[in-house]
Amino acid sequence: MSAVENVSEPVGRILGTEDATPLTFWVGVAPDSYLQLDDAVVVDTEVPGRGPLRIAGIVQDVRARHEGAQFDTDVFLVERGVLPVDTAVAAQVVATRFEPEVFVPPMPGLPAFRARGKDRDEALYFDQMERRVPAGLTRDGEPMFLDLDFLDGTRGAHVNISGISGVATKTTYALFLLYALFHSEVLGRYSTNTKAIVFNVKGEDLMWLDTPNAKLQQADREDYGRLGLPVGAFESVGVWAPVRPDAGGQAVPQIEGRSQGVTAYYWTVREFVREKFLRFLFAEAEDERSQIADLVARVESHLDRECVDDPESDATVSFGGYPVEDFDALCEVIREQVEDEHSPWRGRLSDATVAAFVRRLDAARFRMAHLVWGRAAERPERHRIDWEANQVTVIDIHNLHDRAKRFVTGVVIKRLFEHKESMGRREPLAFLVLDELNRYAPREGWSPIKEVLLDVAERGRSLGMILVGAEQTASEVERRIIANSAFRVVGRLDTAEAARSEYGFLPAVTRSRASILKPGSMILQQPHIPIPLQIRFPFPSWATRADEAAPPGGDPFRPFQGE
Amino acid sequence: MLSLRADPWIPDFGMGFQATLDETPARADPFVETEDWRVPIACRDAESGTVWFVDGVRRVELRLIAGDELGRHAPGLFGSFAVGAVRCDGRATFAEHSLGRSVVVGGGLRPEPVEVRVGGAVLEYQPATEPGGEPDAPLFGLQKAMMAQEAALASRIAAGKEELVLADGRLGFLDATRSPVVGVVKRFVRAYLDPDQDALLPRLSPGERTPLFGLVYEGQPLERYAWYMRLVRSRPEWHDHAGLVRCEVRVGLGLDDARSLADRVSALLPGFAGRPFDPRFPQNLAPVAGLERFLQHRLGHRGLIRRALIARLAEEAA
Known about the structure:
The complex is a heterodimer of chains A (563) and B (318).
Chain A: E1 9-14, E2 24-29, E3 40-47, E4 51-67, H1 74-79, E5 86-99, E6 111-114, H2 117-123, E7 132-137, E8 143-147, E9 159-162, H3 170-183, E10 195-200, H4 218-226, E11 237-242, E12 262-265, E13 267-268, H5 269-274, H6 291-306, E14 307-309, E15 317-319, E16 322-323, H7 327-339, H8 351-368, E17 372-373, E18 392-396, H9 402-423, E19 430-434, H10 437-440, H11 448-463, E20 465-471, H12 479-483, E21 487-490, H13 495-498, H14 508-514, E22 521-525, E23 533-536
Parallel strand pairs in A: 9-20, 9-21, 10-18, 10-19, 11-12, 11-18, 13-17, 19-20
Antiparallel strand pairs in A: 1-2, 1-6, 2-5, 3-4, 3-6, 4-5, 7-8, 14-15, 15-16, 21-22, 22-23
Helix pairs in contact in A: 6-8, 7-8, 9-11
Chain B: E1 3-7, E2 26-29, E3 41-42, E4 51-67, E5 73-88, E6 92-105, E7 114-118, E8 121-129, H1 137-158, E9 164-168, E10 181-185, H2 195-198, E11 208-209, E12 213-217, E13 224-230, E14 244-250, H3 255-268, H4 286-298, H5 302-317
Parallel strand pairs in B: 4-9, 6-8, 9-10
Antiparallel strand pairs in B: 1-4, 2-12, 3-11, 4-5, 5-6, 7-8, 10-14, 12-13, 13-14
């Protein structure tokens, strides 16, 4: 950046024909200047008896009009060169900062400057961010930051991203934030121990995070340079895929695009019993806490109490003196017990409740029996998802049936939450990236996963567990999860969705802009800055598809460098 | 020292006076170009060079009664005027403009200059005297001051390159200029032509004109050639002379130049006809209407100025 670009430049004067208020004012743009949306503007003024005051703000709207023309048809006369008029351009500025805090309007006539360099940092509060995380670039290529204090739980936590699938690039932005966190210096000494768990819910987009993107252009590299980030792939990635259902006793990952470096995951019957995973088979949303949930809780505790560890296998338990061979056998045990009228497992619950319970148990076990292994498991600890091993752990669930998806996410999030809870301190942080939040924490109804996610949203801040959630429509996600997010990010929205109250933080102009955002552009609302700003983020420097994955080991750009 | 006292009425009332200066009694000499007044002359504009429009606006801020120490009284006024130009060369742009402020008193009484502060600006009212004592005499003086400034501006522009200057109203000056100056008179008050020639006027179409005729004001030599032309097609409900303008050029141009100038102006002016919603459609040409609006605005806020003037007179009276 040259020195000239670091100096704020005069662009116009405060209008006297529109009311200037402390929060909003208009700048008449001088004929040889321009202001565009999101430009940072500063105005210096003098308050009688209080001394100098600097008001900084962001351009929220710009308008141009003919002055002296009275009727719509005048424009044609003007163009024919018959009617003389002046053209007036004015920009509406929303104040972001008063230094010192004297809330007076800027006086009409005062010169307004486009903020550059230090002035811009002040207008956007970057000067007050001790630990800033690159968050993207403004449209004119200036870096944009967010304050780690509001992300890591010091003063706030969590990110929520909404937008239409496919166009809004929600997951890509979530990963860009992770990349920025892990590859800048901002995390300091916790850098290596900070972990992230990313669920891959659609396609195999996230299976290549550890591979550089072969399609990166020079301009993209410059973007990373401006943000102070290296260009490359995620350094430490563990990729986990569900075990193939028909592998005949071999723990082979179920994945198409990638053959190497993927570990198959499953749980054991013993874990299932001891850690009370049964509830995650019953994870679809219910109207309220139905009797089934009571029955599930009873069965979980009876299982845990009445099963003893199988002496011949680490992976399973025995019940009534007989080993439980596999998950099907476990389900049979459960079914027999609850259907036995005299068994204490079912308590006083009605036949109808038991029937509903068994029906759901059967439905779930058919979909995800392959994810819980009994005696067939060899060295099951190697197939237990281990998020400590790598900085970023990608858990693929895209091929699983909906019930199995809920089971995996529920179990992983619960385990992670309990792990963080037992650590008793915030650092090192654990990030959880989860798309399709509306499926896991819907606005209506109750489910065990929603309960865990609410725990994360409400207590994760103090526990250092940070939720980076995404969904197509924030209106369908539990309010408290959205409300607890310090950062709200919006990609392309459809206009009906944008009109909902969940996006009340977007001013009308920004709301309209949300419906025309291009992929790679987002609107970012952060606690420091009173209005949301449009940003774009660089093209991923890691591969997001098989054809972007550079050949392993080699420099993908070598062929272009003309050796 | 003259004492000035305000008339509390808003000056718009009781001012029937409009533009007697535009239409003074004169005699026409219809045969300077041709004796054939049976058919209109169709005009075609060969060149499409730069055209300037020059106009002025005036406003009475406050009417006065002035009195001197001898007990003589005369009407007076505080007035403002602005003159300016629009340059049309495919684009219409505001060019030079200037403002004038006058304190005019009739009856031969001479006021002092008056300075008034309005907000952050200081307005200076230059003194002027009119010999007449009738109520409209000061307005006549203000009008003259404005016209003098208009004429000066038109002549300044006409001193430039080969361009065409169209000045609003009667031709204000008759000196030779490098570029031709044409006076364009909107108002049709007085019929200068005899009925024989006048019969041609209703038959004019846009882009057509009458033959040139000499216009001789009472007691003056022949100084102007004039012609009538139509700006827009007539409408059934209109009277015969609606939609016409009279143009004037100085005789010093020579008949040939005057004729080709008349052809050019008659061909191009319909393109600048006023907008249909203009109260003075179609004669208030679009560039002129835009200019007047611009100049009116430059006069400043009427209420603020009036209030400052009254405060000033109150100070003097105290």
